[in-house]
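WP5 quarterly update. Target: Histidine kinase. Source organism: Bradyrhizobium canariense. Length: 461 aa.
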Amino acid sequence: MWNRPRFDLKVRLTLRVAAISAACFAVISAYFLITADRAAHARLDDIAAIVAKTLELQQGKIQWVASPRSDFPNLDPVSAYVMTPGLCLAFRGTSGDILQRFCSGAPAPANPPPQAFTAFYRSLFDPGREAARPVIVRGAKLGDAVVSVEPAVQTAEAWHEAGRLMLALAIALPLLCALVYAALARALRPTRMIRTGLERIAAKDLTTRLPPFDLAELSAIRDGFNHLAESLETALAERSELTRKLIALQDEERRHLARELHDEFGQSLAAIRALASSARQTAAQDCPSLLGECDGIARTATGMMETLRGTLFRLRPPDVEELGLVASLEGLVAGWNGRSRGETRFSIRFDGAFETLPATISASLYRIVQEALTNAAKHAVATRVSLELTMGASEIALAIDDDGRATDPVAKSGMGLLGMRERVAALRGQLSFDAKPNGGSALRVVIPLAAADRPPLEHAA
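Structure tokens (predicted):
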């Protein structure tokens, strides 16, 4: 099972792009507001310069014509050209008093700015700041021309401009995120192929290969993946071949040991039985008191011959290739039922045509069943053991269940489970041994008959 990440990579990257874009928009907005504030103050400075120049001309004209009536300062002429909503023009004398002031009204904005924006803007830019220019005539300063704008008007204008920018952000940011997500989804589409390939490798399908990719980084991953799959396939093939040779050597050694036991111990036990029979005849004539010992020797030799016969049967089972797998396994189960004397009940069921099985698979299945029955009867102390062998179109499934102690066979029989694993691995199969919740154990073996055809990896993604 693959652990799913908490966040999808496309979502994570899209969120990062959105955060960076929002930060860029914020910087642009700040730059825009700063630039707008500077432009507003530059405009006020220019108006203040115009007002001051106009007042200087008025005062010069009065002095030139020597007019007794003085209407200085007169802001009406200049206000007709520079007045805008919320703008105030004033003349401040040298004493600091406002001698004349002229302000234009400002209509209430249709969409007033939020209070948060108003507080933020006024704390940073001071929209009520005045622009003043001195009025100097013949070297003497008469006062200052003062120009200002209502803070509410300047704040509303800034909000109006910032609102357009925020509207553009509200439209552009989701669109940008959608485009980025689509581009990332397209660029990361090969990662699904890589994940599918890894899942197939985990399922022991080492024939899996990744197709070429357009991106250089993914192509490097593809090369490494394919090289790893080829190396694993080669290593597994070499391991399977070595396991096959080891199993063949083990079987040959068993056959050789069986011949030695049969030729040496079998003949010796037969000779002991013959000598015991001869001694009994002699004892019956000359010393009847030795008849019990002679019979005991004969019984012991007979028991040893039966034990030897069972050992020989396990070392060298009947020729599966000649008898067939079904007949061989039925004979094996019948033999166990006979030897257990009712203490353990063995049953077997077949489903499929096993006559066409290759000899290597038949022999390995026989050995696996033989070892499993030995473990169940001798080590698990089971009272019921059921076997089911099923043959499908592409694989063979063996299921062995018992009601004995749920202990790992390898802990009791040494190389029992390991030997079964080696035989299954040599056939490119899978073996599992699990304890049942209600007691007992379950052995499952699946052996493929041929490599199953799979769809190309390009279409599997």
